[in-house]
Design brief:
Layout (H helix, E strand, L loop, with lengths): L1 H32 L14 E7 L4 E2 L4 E3 L9 E6 L10 E7 L10 E13 L2 E3 L4 E4 L13 E9 L17 E3 L1 H8 L6 E7 L48 H24 L1
Helix pairs in contact: 1-3
């Protein structure tokens, strides 16, 4: 019975860790295969998965899901699932949604559809009440025949002492801007979580490369799941320390699953 009490929690913990690492790796892989990272964002080291819910229309979306302009009218509800138990969502966050246009487009300037500072995270839900609103959420509206546009939703942990850049000012409308310049000026670093949708109107009048779906079961994992809470940013899902191995998610998947299997096998050997 002692072996049972010890082995079962260990087995579930190992399997849970493997699942979390795969989810984080899949989030990064989706953006990479869609040409969003690198490109629209220079780098992405996810510390959490981002759930995007268009409540009242399509509900929670899958990464890269194709939806209509009508589907995107409600302001999306966002929630975060941490990469592991060391990630805690304290402090303030910047939330953005930008149109990265079609695959292969110049993304040095993107269209800003949503940008707020000082968002909070409570019970993993991102709350955008009482925020510094730069651009109020505006639903996608790609030009007819321009192809499938990639609308990327991003969450950044704000550093301590955060001061929003002067440009764009508060209450600015939907407009082109340099996301990379804004992130650099605000000292935001890499987004901690991201997701994206595709919206198209009419039939494309030009040949557009298609994004590719990611099959999670084939992933060895390509993103770090070793997120830490170092306090270097007020949003505590911060960049891992230099001692963290760059492929720790891959290592975690590789180790966790065999470990879980070994524990379960050992349990049955003990009991029977």
């Amino acid at each position: 019975m002692l072996a049972l009490a010890v082995a079962v929690p260990l087995a579930f913990a190992a399997l849970s860790a493997a699942q979390d690492a795969t989810a984080i790796a899949a989030e990064k892989a989706h953006l990479t295969q869609a040409g969003i990272e690198p490109g629209c964002i220079p780098s992405f080291d996810p510390q959490a998965t981002l759930t995007v819910n268009f409540d009242g229309t399509v509900g929670s979306i899958q990464p890269g899901q194709k939806i209509t302009v009508a589907d995107t009218q409600p302001t999306p509800k966002l929630s975060l699932t941490p990469a592991n138990s060391s990630v805690q969502f304290n402090g303030d966050y910047t939330v953005a949604m930008v149109d990265c246009d079609i695959v292969g487009a110049d993304t040095s300037q993107v269209t800003r559809h949503w940008l707020v500072n000082n968002a909070k995270v409570a019970s993993n839900a991102v709350t955008t009440d009482n925020v510094n609103e730069i651009t109020k959420y505006g639903a996608p509206l790609p030009a007819e025949g321009s192809g499938s546009h990639r609308y990327v939703l991003l969450v950044y942990a704000q550093p301590s002492g955060f001061t929003p850049p002067a440009d764009p000012p508060t209450n600015a409308g939907i407009a082109k801007f340099s996301l990379s310049d804004y992130v650099k000026a605000a000292n935001l670093g890499s987004p901690i979580a991201a997701n994206y949708i595709q919206v198209e109107q009419g039939t494309a009048t030009q040949s557009v490369s298609q994004t590719q779906s990611v099959v999670s079961s084939t992933l060895a994992a390509g993103a770090s799941s070793s997120a830490s809470s170092t306090g270097s940013k007020s949003g505590s899902a911060s960049t891992p320390s230099s001692s963290t191995k760059p492929n720790s998610a891959s290592s975690l998947v590789a180790c966790a699953v065999p470990a879980a299997v070994s524990v379960v096998f050992g349990l049955f050997m003990t009991l029977f």
